[in-house]
């Protein structure tokens, strides 16, 4: 019930049409990685996926936002199937990834925002290394670059209410893995794959 | 003849017309051989199918009464404003004016119309919106292209909310001896504006040679305008019996709607061109966005409203 209401509200306010270019909405294990500029992002990708895929796809949600308050937590965890992670975890590299590994080992898919926090530019900023470690550990999982167009205009950082501006979710061709590729080269290539999906700016 | 009898006849007539169009579309789709011909026919049939849906929505909302019809037009304003703002570059500092436009001014305009507060709904957006929006935008302290940004939002609001809201405002007019016949005036306005668009498209496709505005709108031709415009004026005269107008006056009113509709289509084509897009959106398959269908109506509605109000109430 709540999920349908949320999808209806998302469609009404910001549209969130899915554009599949180079990959198809198929039932297979994937990591969707996207640019991050607004609190709408998780909701947008989640509601752009067809129903069958939605059930087995888990957005990564920052515990300091989606874990706060009963309502937001309920939506984040129960409705969106989200996995809460702590952004501030200290420890060995990749320690914060434990909950994500669990999801992937169970054969389910992930939605990941590798920038870590929300940016305000049209193109994504530098990616954190989590995507690299996960792609190494789970070589069979397909990596699908995803570009979110407009959510930073509909719901900019520091505002309380989204305004009605149409957003689109573009899913691009899966990122190919090159044997022995360095971490930084891989992350830069992944970032370029997301940027390549951005429409030309009208200025 | 009662009001509901008239509406039944009118919607029956529109249904028959669309039925004929669907039949023609079906026959054409079997005959088309060339690649471009097929594309044109496919688009034509998509348009006809979308017309069925739009007519059904109007028929149901008319049947459910004034409140539902107001909500239908408020939603139309909402979607057209969303299309307009989505294509208009805005900055983070425009957020507050946009919140005010979508969540305060739009509902307020339709509420004022539904309670028939004429003196306020005619100045809400042109005066109070005009003063409020730049004030809210200035609060954020971002001066980059300030005048341009403020003007775009104001223009979008005037077009999609203020102008379009004058169509359902016809329901509030009290025409002596004709209580509740606002629905017929609204039907007259929508039918003539849309019929004119459709016939201009048909005449343009069949006989169009002389481009009127090659830069702004290459599909507008003199043959299309004259053929389509005359058809719509004739249709207006033929519909005089549902209006307070004589046949000649009905033709003159239809002429005003056709002329304003043409100018609206032209001006909005120029806006689209300046934004480097062909359609306002993709919500109505075959037609583009909602605003692609509402462009002529938005220009015709306030003029038709004023003409009717000054001369017939």
UniProtKB/TrEMBL annotation, chain A:
Keyword RNA-binding attached: no
Residue ranges annotated for the Phospholipid/glycerol acyltransferase domain, each copy included: 30-151
InterPro entries documented for this protein: Plipid/glycerol_acylTrfase
Family matches, as Pfam families: Acyltransferase (PF01553)
GO MF: 1-acylglycerol-3-phosphate O-acyltransferase activity
Superkingdom, taxonomy of origin: Bacteria
Keywords carried by this UniProt record: Acyltransferase, Transferase
An individual GO BP term: phosphatidic acid biosynthetic process
Listed pathway(s): Lipid metabolism
The protein's name: 1-acyl-sn-glycerol-3-phosphate acyltransferase
TrEMBL record, chain B:
GO molecular function: phosphatidate cytidylyltransferase activity
Residues passing through the membrane, by range: 7-28, 48-75, 96-113, 119-141, 153-171, 183-203, 224-242, 248-268
Domain of life according to the entry: Bacteria
Catalysed reaction equations from the record: a 1,2-diacyl-sn-glycero-3-phosphate + CTP + H(+) = a CDP-1,2-diacyl-sn-glycerol + diphosphate
GO BP annotations listed: CDP-diacylglycerol biosynthetic process; peptidoglycan-based cell wall biogenesis
Metabolic or biological pathway: Phospholipid metabolism; CDP-diacylglycerol biosynthesis; CDP-diacylglycerol from sn-glycerol 3-phosphate: step 3/3
Record carries keyword Nucleotidyltransferase: yes
Keyword presence, Glycoprotein: no
Any matching Pfam family: CTP_transf_1
Top-level enzyme category: transferase
GO CC terms, sorted: plasma membrane
Annotated membrane topology: Multi-pass membrane protein
Broad class of where this protein is predominantly found: membrane
EC number: 2.7.7.41
Localization annotation: Membrane
Keywords from the UniProt entry: Membrane, Nucleotidyltransferase, Transferase, Transmembrane, Transmembrane helix
PANTHER family given in the database record: PHOSPHATIDATE CYTIDYLYLTRANSFERASE
Entry similarity comment: Belongs to the CDS family.
Name used for this protein in its record: Phosphatidate cytidylyltransferase
Name of the gene encoding the protein in the UniProt record: ynbB
């Amino acid at each position: 019930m709540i999920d349908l209401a949320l999808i209806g509200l998302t469609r009404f306010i910001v549209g969130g049409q899915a554009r599949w270019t180079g990959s198809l909405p198929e039932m297979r294990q994937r990591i969707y990685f996207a640019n991050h500029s607004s609190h709408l992002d998780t909701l947008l990708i989640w509601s752009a996926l067809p129903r069958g895929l939605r059930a087995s796809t888990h957005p990564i949600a920052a515990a300091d936002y989606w874990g706060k308050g009963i309502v937001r937590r309920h939506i984040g965890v129960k409705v969106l199937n989200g996995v809460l992670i702590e952004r501030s975890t200290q420890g060995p590299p990749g320690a914060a990834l434990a909950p994500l590994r669990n999801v992937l080992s169970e054969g389910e898919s992930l939605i990941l925002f590798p920038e870590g926090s929300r940016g305000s530019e049209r193109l994504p900023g530098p990616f954190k290394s989590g995507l690299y470690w996960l792609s190494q550990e789970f070589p069979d999982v397909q990596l699908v670059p995803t570009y979110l167009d407009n959510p930073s205009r509909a719901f900019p950082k520091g505002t309380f209410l989204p305004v009605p501006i149409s957003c689109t979710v573009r899913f691009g061709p899966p990122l190919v893995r090159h044997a022995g590729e360095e971490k930084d080269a891989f992350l830069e290539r992944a970032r370029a794959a997301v940027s390549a999906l951005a429409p030309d700016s009208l200025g | 003849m009662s009001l509901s009898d008239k509406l039944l006849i009118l919607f029956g007539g529109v249904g028959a017309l669309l039925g004929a169009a669907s039949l023609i579309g079906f026959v054409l789709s079997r005959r088309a051989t060339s690649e471009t011909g097929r594309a044109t026919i496919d688009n034509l049939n998509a348009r006809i199918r979308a017309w069925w849906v739009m007519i059904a929505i109007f028929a149901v909302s008319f049947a459910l009464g004034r409140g539902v019809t107001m909500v239908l037009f408020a939603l139309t304003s909402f979607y057209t404003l969303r299309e307009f703002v989505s294509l208009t570059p805005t900055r983070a500092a425009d957020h507050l004016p946009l919140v005010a436009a979508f969540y305060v001014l739009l509902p307020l305009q339709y509420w004022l119309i539904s309670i028939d507060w004429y003196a306020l709904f005619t100045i809400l957006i042109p005066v109070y919106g005009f003063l409020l929006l730049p004030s809210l935008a200035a609060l954020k302290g971002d001066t980059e292209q300030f005048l341009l940004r403020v003007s775009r939002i104001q223009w979008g609001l005037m077009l999609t909310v203020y102008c379009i809201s004058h169509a359902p405002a016809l329901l509030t007019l009290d025409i002596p001896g004709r209580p509740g016949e606002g629905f017929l005036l609204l039907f007259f306005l929508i039918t003539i504006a849309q019929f004119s668009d459709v016939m201009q498209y048909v005449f343009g496709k069949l006989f169009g040679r002389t481009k009127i505005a090659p830069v702004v709108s290459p599909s507008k031709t003199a043959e299309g305008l004259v053929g389509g415009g005359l058809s719509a004026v004739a249709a207006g005269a033929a519909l005089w019996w549902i209006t307070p107008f004589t046949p000649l006056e009905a033709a003159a009113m239809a002429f005003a709607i056709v002329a304003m509709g043409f100018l609206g289509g032209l001006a909005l084509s120029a806006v689209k061109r300046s934004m480097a897009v062909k359609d306002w959106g993709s919500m109505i398959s075959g037609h583009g966005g909602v605003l692609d269908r509402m462009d002529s109506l938005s220009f015709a509605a306030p003029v038709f409203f004023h003409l009717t109000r000054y001369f017939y109430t």
